[in-house]
Design goal:
Order of helices and strands: HHHHHHHHHH
Number of strands: 0
Shape: elongated
Largest sheet: none
Radius of gyration: 18 Å
Distance between the termini: 19 Å
Strand content: under 5%
Helix content: over 70%
């Protein structure tokens, strides 16, 4: 079977699974709402970064993006649906690639729209505090935010194939992001700059302060995602459906 009909089939699965619409809506709603709240916060902190403040809603919003990637894959394992999918597409790599594209496209689109809405909502609250942001910095922040959301969704998708369980993926990734990055990260020092979430979020800062730059940080997240996807592909090829 050619790749295009396989991609159409996987895209149809995404469009017809209602829970996936809920996760994508949550990415938009949570990202925009938290950024709008951040926009009316105190801006007197000497470390205040207007671009990060405007896009900070993506930090809670990414949880929904992770759920989107995990549920899109884990739905295949309910009722042995994966057996039917692989019977229709015996070339497992082709099926997995189509599944990843079906996850990447909507997550990127929603990430970009969410980032733009968050920026506009937060800027309305920040007022003159955001006047120093250049057009280039804002475009970089919005595009980088959209790519980051997509990478986190794909990261979750790869891990879900490895674990064969969406619950296991969510139970691993969400505590990792909330505990390791925010609690241990402030104690462990520079090594945590290379964690998938922290590295990718560098692109959200107007003036990054650390080892990684905006795009190199996003590249590190891309490497984490690639590793998860490759691990998933290996597991898929080595284990019976």
């Amino acid at each position: 079977m050619q790749f295009t009909p396989v991609l159409r089939s996987e895209a149809l699965k995404v469009r017809t699974l209602r829970s996936l619409y809920g996760t994508l809506l949550a990415v938009f709603a949570v990202t925009t709402a938290f950024s709008a709240l951040a926009g009316v916060s105190d801006t007197s902190d000497p470390d205040f970064d207007p671009l990060f403040m405007a896009l900070s809603g993506v930090m809670p919003g990414q949880i929904a993006a992770i759920a989107f990637g995990a549920v899109a894959v884990s739905s295949e394992y309910h009722g042995n649906g994966i057996r039917l999918s692989l019977a229709a597409v015996p070339r497992r790599g082709r099926w997995f690639a189509a599944k990843l594209v079906a996850i990447a496209v909507p997550s990127l689109a929603v990430g970009l729209v969410s980032a733009l809405a968050a920026l506009l909502a937060a800027r309305a609250g920040l007022g003159t505090a955001a006047s120093g942001l250049t057009a280039g910095e804002q475009v970089r922040g919005v595009v980088g935010c959209g790519v980051y959301v997509m990478l986190m969704a794909l990261f979750a998708a790869g891990l879900t194939v490895v674990f064969r369980s969406g619950v296991a993926t969510l139970s691993t990734l969400i505590p990792f992001i909330l505990v390791v990055s925010f609690v241990i990260g402030d104690v462990a020092g520079g090594a945590t700059d290379f964690l998938p979430d922290r590295a990718g979020q560098v692109v959200l800062y107007q003036t990054p302060d650390g080892t990684l730059g905006p795009w190199t940080g996003l590249a590190v997240t891309g490497l984490w995602t690639a590793a998860a996807v490759l691990a998933g592909a290996w597991r898929l090829s080595r284990r019976d459906a």
